[in-house]
Amino acid sequence: AVPLVVAINTSLAARNGILIRDRVAMEEARTLDTVVFDKTGTLTKGEQGVVGVETTAEWSEADVLSVMAAVEGDSEHMIAEAIRGAARERALTVPDARGFEALEGRGVRATVDTDATPVTDGGTESAAGATGESVYVGGPNLLRHLDVDPTAALATFADEAGSRGQGVVYLVHDGATVGAVALADVVREESRAAVDALHAMGVEVAMLTGDSEDVARAVAADLGIDTYFAEVLPGDKDAKITELQTGGRTVAMVGDGVNDAPALTRADVGIAIGSGTDVAVEAADVVLVDNDPRDVVSLLRLSRASYRKMR
Ligand code: ADP
Ligand code: MG
């Protein structure tokens, strides 16, 4: 009867986007009490996104983002894509721009041709719109280069973003900073649901990352993750799994990268995200083909259910 149950389980799993490479591990999944997730590319999207916008006086968030997106129109930088994406998500009208110029390692400059920039207090015409003057978008290096200090509010925004491990890019208009955005690797919405569901099943969730303490703390807090290990060198990830196992835990590791492979092998159940590298998939017992961290929950449920049937 056992092989039959396992076979049913396997096809049911496949329909849930779960590819089982090692059936014994799949059976073991019912005893898991801890799931360790890799951060970048597993719990997060692994790409930059705009996570905050700060404005000054007469500039609205929409003004800041749409003008920034205009200036970034010609740039292939990951930051430019994030800013254009944020403007697109908010369905903002991006003004025309010309004279694009990349300032290597600092940012970009362009001339914004429309009157999309806001009208000043005095009710005069928008400066950028009227004169078509230079608008800059760039990081702290750009401000140093232009010899511009951020306003007090923007400096505070930058400090707070920095403490969360986020980068900041400023909008400079008429020799002054008029807005800024904070950029971070974006947490997947599905990750939140996965963590909550695992907790509801009585499973502890941990996160493992090579990223900084600041970033790790922020992501763990955001997702309600119990334990995190930050600044873990690629060669030390598997040692963290062993540490948990030595402490009496039965551990699943979920990862996508080449440097996750030893930890996937070491874990009681190694789970690779399907979009991950071949090396991670080869090291894994189970592959989540839909790249959805919530499928870890389905996997545990399936394993627990099939165990009940076999008894
Ligand atoms: P990196 O690859 O580490 O981002 P770059 O030399 O490309 O290094 O950029 C260094 C910094 O310059 C960035 O962190 C950012 O602050 C600023 N920068 C570069 N390009 C842009 C851009 N297109 N838009 C805004 N800021 C930029
Ligand atoms: Mg990764």
Automatic annotation (TrEMBL):
<comment type="similarity">
    <text>Belongs to the cation transport ATPase (P-type) (TC 3.A.3) family. Type IB subfamily.</text>
</comment>
<protein>
    <submittedName>
        <fullName>Heavy metal translocating P-type ATPase</fullName>
    </submittedName>
</protein>
